[in-house]
């Protein structure tokens, strides 16, 4: 495998709106990020992925762009962004921009034109179907509620939207539209943006009857074309595609370096394992064995060709700890460390979502009216119309809502968790007095320092980057263990996913091993490794 400069890097995702507010208007901004760069440098991350920062009416917090060249005023100015890029450069951090190319805002001038005139240049920048007001074209449900087709009385046509009605899909069949997007990407490349996360990129090819075409070859043609006219013009960029519906076979193609499509992809198979935000949001049960086999499939599947992104959550999912760990005071830190060990021992590029490094948890609301996210708001409305009780709606939102991950970053014990001196756009999680950055940095045993150590380990040990993956203890109901090996070097990772002790089968001799990291006090490897404490995790070099 050819080595790349970004292989050892750990990325950190910033949801700007909720990260740090510098001017007291209650909304996080670029100057806020700049003021926290020393913190991120200390953690050791090599990239920050910033959620969309272009101008937007914010129906979907920036994922509905009305001007691809302008900066959202809430976040700052173009000069602030340039300053951010420079300040990051000084600290060896690259800035990754979130590019939303599947759709624009319905307030983008292209769409305003398109919806006015069937014969104008921009009409074909979007996807239209004939119909009558009471007879929409055949189509599936949109991601954020309702049907994918929305009526435009002015021109008596329906437009297509994968997500909300405020997010009309762009028509990738239109070459002028594509060229306009590529020019826009070059503009941001010139501003010093070194990484690009392509939002919902596997949705850009439609199947012609109201759905996305995951089988089409066309998507590869577009990605290669985009690379040729934008990313490929520079050799020091990093691209990651959000490909929610991708199969392993497709992912191999997307991230095969020879094909020049994407450097890596986010796949969401794990994100759907418990039914969160998938299907009808009903809870789905799964076993640790299912989770292990799924991870193994992607680890082994992309071993020769391609590259994985490693993550357990982002701004679209509940908090990692509340979802896969144990967020009670007793086990919060230890289970958070265990999950981090599991992910950082794997092959791929780890992404930390803001706040996960200090163990932030889901937010507990007692009224469904507290939710702000468009998806949650639409969900609530739809279910109310169906007659669901408040109690049932609330229980679904508590488990699934994206707002769980969007409460302000918890910096300290001051008002609003130190996120703002004003009134926050969203209240901080009430537990900020117990969970915050300031306290984490004072405590050598904190999750923060554990993450810091994991990030550093990946810079020192090639076996963690390039080693082959082999699942151990496959049938164990409570332990996730695997081995990474490279040129005679071996690292074994052992994680107890249970709240109770677990006994492993002594199939390997680990007693002479060197402990790289361990989430309980004391670092000697003896026989005790075979009896794991609750949520205990080891990373051992043998
Ligand atoms: O997300 C797409 C999205 O909704 C995924 O979480 C989806 O569940 C996954 O692809 C499985 O198919 C992106 C952004 O991350 C999200 O915040 C935006 O709301 C959305 O696109 C629309 O831009
Ligand atoms: Ca602000």
UniProtKB/TrEMBL annotation:
UniProt entry keywords in alphabetical sequence: Glycosidase, Hydrolase
Domain Glycosyl hydrolase family 13 catalytic residues, every copy: 13-406
GO molecular-function terms, A-Z: alpha-amylase activity
SUPFAM superfamilies, A to Z: (Trans)glycosidases (SSF51445), Glycosyl hydrolase domain (SSF51011)
Family matches, as SMART domains: Aamy
UniProt GO BP: oligosaccharide catabolic process
Signal sequence, renumbered to the chain: none
Keyword Hydrolase included in the entry's annotation: yes
InterPro entries according to UniProt: GH, GH13_cat_dom, Glyco_hydro_b, Malt_amylase-like_C, O16G_dom_2
Gene3D superfamilies associated with the record: Glycosidases (3.20.20.80), Golgi alpha-mannosidase II (2.60.40.1180), Oligo-1,6-glucosidase, Domain 2 (3.90.400.10)
Family: Belongs to the glycosyl hydrolase 13 family.
Designated name of the protein: Alpha-glucosidase
